[in-house]
């Protein structure tokens, strides 16, 4: 099986205020080109799992593979680079820098990676914005655009380094139904037209049931790995 992301026997404990076994031997994979969603009650461990899968949290046992490469045990510096190159992340809140232009916000992760000239990065950023139908906003300040537009800018920023997987932690959680539908359609197009793999934590059943697969979490366990 060709996995973009594979978790093997992931266990995590929170030690304070008292020991809490939050993820219990979680094993599953996301196939290349798959659009998967994670659902489960509040407190079932979805966000905790996603932070491990996105390599932001390294305090766990088990093994995590990204593009068939073992990433568990790498240094924070190595992980920062692996993450920036391979994983796009969209949160419930957009985390745009409000004083910067839309274009500058989208360019930032590519500048950090430092593999392309500013001119190439700017061209790529324009292309991502056009793809998401917000090219006309490039020179607007991020603080001046609507909530739905901000989330699309956040998606453009997540795509700037051409990641192999796009992850979302309730990416439609702050949006009305019209903008949620927009985000779903963007994700679906990315899968269908570019073969991108996606993994999205959501409470939105209407969103989840239209993905390729719903991964159900309950009390730190995946019910259908
Ligand atoms: N830093 C922490 N220390 C101790 N316990 C924590 C910590 N972070 C989360 N928890 C607990 O771990 C459990 C899982 O939390 P997590 O945020 O992963 O759940 P979730 O399924 O994403 O919930 P929601 O749908 O509400 O976002 C919860 O019981 C939560 O209270």
From TrEMBL:
A cellular-component GO term for this protein: membrane protein complex
Keywords recorded for this protein, A-Z: ATP-binding, Nucleotide-binding, Translocase, Transport
Gene Ontology MF terms: ATP binding; ATP hydrolysis activity; transmembrane transporter activity
Entry-linked CDD domains: ABC_MJ0796_LolCDE_FtsE
Stored SUPFAM superfamilies: P-loop containing nucleoside triphosphate hydrolases (SSF52540)
InterPro entries to which the protein is assigned, alphabetical: AAA+_ATPase, ABC_transporter-like_ATP-bd, ABC_transporter-like_CS, MacB-like_ATP-bd, P-loop_NTPase
UniProt domain ABC transporter: residue ranges: 5-223
Gene3D superfamilies per UniProt: P-loop containing nucleotide triphosphate hydrolases
Top-rank lineage group of the source organism: Bacteria
PANTHER family per UniProt: ALPHA-D-RIBOSE 1-METHYLPHOSPHONATE 5-TRIPHOSPHATE SYNTHASE SUBUNIT PHNL (PTHR42798:SF7), LIPOPROTEIN-RELEASING SYSTEM ATP-BINDING PROTEIN LOLD (PTHR42798)
Family: Belongs to the ABC transporter superfamily. Macrolide exporter (TC 3.A.1.122) family.
Protein name (Swiss-Prot/TrEMBL): ABC transporter ATP-binding protein
Originating organism: Flagellimonas pelagia
């Amino acid at each position: 099986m060709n996995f973009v992301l594979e978790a093997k026997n992931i266990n995590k404990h929170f030690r304070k205020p008292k020991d809490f076994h939050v993820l219990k031997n979680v094993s599953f994979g996301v196939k290349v080109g798959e659009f998967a969603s994670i659902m489960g009650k509040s407190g079932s461990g979805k966000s905790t799992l996603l932070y491990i899968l996105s390599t932001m949290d390294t305090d766990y046992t088990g093994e995590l593979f990204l593009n068939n490469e073992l990433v568990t045990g790498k240094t924070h510096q190595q992980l920062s680079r692996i993450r920036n190159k391979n994983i796009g992340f969209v949160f419930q809140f957009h985390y745009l820098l409000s004083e910067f232009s839309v274009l500058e916000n989208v360019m930032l992760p590519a500048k950090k990676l430092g593999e392309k000239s500013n001119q190439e990065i700017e061209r790529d950023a324009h292309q991502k914005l056009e793809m998401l139908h917000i090219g006309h906003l490039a020179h607007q300040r991020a603080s001046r655009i609507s909530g739905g537009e901000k989330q699309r800018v956040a998606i453009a920023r997540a795509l700037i380094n051409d990641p192999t997987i796009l992850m979302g932690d309730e990416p439609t959680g702050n949006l009305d139904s019209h903008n949620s539908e927009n985000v779903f359609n963007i994700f679906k197009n990315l899968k269908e037209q570019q073969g991108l793999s996606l993994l999205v934590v959501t409470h939105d059943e209407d969103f989840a049931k239209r993905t390729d697969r719903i991964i159900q979490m309950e009390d730190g366990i995946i019910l259908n790995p």
